[in-house]
Specification:
A hairpin with a 5-residue loop joins strand 1 and strand 2. The chain is mainly alpha-helical and 78 residues long. It has three helices and two strands. A two-stranded antiparallel sheet has the order 1-2.
Length: 78
């Protein structure tokens, strides 16, 4: 009975409201987006061209994607 009570308590949010699964997904999406932005800020001082390139081509949202322009392939070799 105690384990059942613990599980049920974990399934509800503040004030006994139902916890939405979508809220967990939104929290994860937001965390990923913020971490990608933080990575851009850390890269920019040393490699501004790379930070610009990544910022132009990385898309965040429900899904994250790296989408370079097909007509302008990137040569990553230095």
């Amino acid at each position: 009975m105690e384990r059942l009570t613990e599980q049920l308590a974990g399934a509800v949010g503040l004030g006994g409201r139902d916890r939405l699964a979508a809220a967990d997904a939104e929290n994860a999406r937001s965390a990923v987006t913020q971490n990608i932005k933080a990575a851009f800020r850390r890269i920019r001082p040393r490699l501004p061209a790379l930070a610009d390139q990544l910022q132009r081509h990385i898309r965040t949202g429900t899904y994250c994607a790296y989408a370079p322009y097909p007509a302008h392939p990137i040569d990553w070799a230095m």
